[in-house]
């Protein structure tokens, strides 16, 4: 278990080098099996504060987040089902049940929404990337506090009925659902990374 305290210390505005923080960053894995209680208010505050520290051209803050917990997860499951039935009215009961249960895989599901604003210098792609970076910051902040998290999407992410049910506006896009909770069972091993395959000198 990771020591949750004092992961990074600050001196004024200058972060001190922290080998622990780097180790944590390099050891992040997605946790597909989560359960237990909701992350604490304090832990969640840190997770959302980390989200808001994502790089962000012109400080647009092109993101917002919806917390789905408790019975609201059942409502989200029902929304998924109604969206799917719109596409396929003959969906069988097993598929309906499976879909309905999806949000119950974690005590907390965070809907990550990119809110795209018109800006002369910041195109949509940059704002989407900022929102994506904010999602990654949440995964890291969860991991650093010993909380399991996984970024999921799937066809429901882009479905108009789901968008409508979640109150997603025309200028917004759901970029994912982050499932979060306490870690259950073994987590996957961090794979070996072949840096040189992806990084070259330009010459
Ligand atoms: C935008 C996005 C959407 C994803 N959607 C899914 C998904 O729906 N289902 C899934 O199993 N993994 C999905 N993943 C991948 C997992 O979140 C995870 O990154 C992957 O399983 C690799 O695990 P790791 O993060 O431990 O390397 C998605 C990742 C991203 C960035």
Structure in words:
The protein has helices spanning 19-26, 41-52, 72-87, 93-101, 124-144, 160-165, 195-198, and strands at 10-11, 14-15, 34-35, 63-69, 108-115, 148-152, 172-183. With 203 residues, the chain is α+β, with helices and mostly antiparallel strands. It has a domain at 30-69 and 106-184: NADH Oxidase (3-Layer(aba) Sandwich). The strands form two sheets. Strands 3, 4, 5, 6 and 7 form a five-stranded antiparallel beta sheet that branches. A two-stranded antiparallel ribbon has the order 1-2. A hairpin with a 2-residue loop joins strand 1 and strand 2 (14-15). Helix 2 (41-52) packs antiparallel against helix 5 and helix 3 runs antiparallel to helix 4 (93-101). The radius of gyration is 19 Å and the shape is globular. The model is unreliable at 1-7 (pLDDT under 50). The protein binds flavin mononucleotide.
- Would you identify the CATH architecture of the domain at 30-69 and 106-184? 3-Layer(aba) Sandwich
CATH level 3 topology of the domain at 30-69 and 106-184: NADH Oxidase
Helix content class: 25-40%
Work out the helix count: 7
The beta-strand count equals 7
Q: Which segments are poorly predicted (pLDDT under 50) over 5 or more consecutive residues?
A: 1-7
């Amino acid at each position: 278990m990771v020591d949750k305290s004092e992961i990074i210390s600050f001196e004024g505005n200058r972060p001190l080098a922290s080998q622990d923080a780097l180790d944590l960053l390099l050891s992040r894995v997605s946790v597909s099996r989560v359960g237990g209680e909701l992350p604490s208010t304090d832990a969640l505050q840190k997770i959302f504060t980390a989200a808001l520290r994502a790089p962000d051209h012109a400080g647009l803050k092109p993101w917002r987040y919806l917390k789905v917990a408790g019975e609201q997860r059942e409502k989200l499951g029902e929304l998924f089902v109604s969206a799917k039935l719109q596409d396929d009215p003959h969906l069988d009961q097993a598929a309906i049940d499976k879909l309905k249960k999806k949000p119950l895989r974690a005590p907390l599901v965070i809907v990550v929404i990119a809110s795209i604003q018109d800006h002369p210098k910041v195109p949509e792609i940059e704002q989407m990337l900022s929102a994506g970076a904010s999602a990654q910051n949440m995964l890291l902040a969860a991991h650093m506090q010993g909380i399991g998290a996984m970024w999921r999407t799937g066809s429901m992410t882009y479905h108009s009925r789901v968008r409508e049910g979640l109150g997603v506006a025309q200028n917004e896009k759901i970029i994912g659902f982050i499932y979060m909770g306490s870690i259950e069972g073994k987590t996957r091993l961090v794979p070996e990374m072949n840096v040189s395959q992806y990084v070259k000198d330009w010459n």
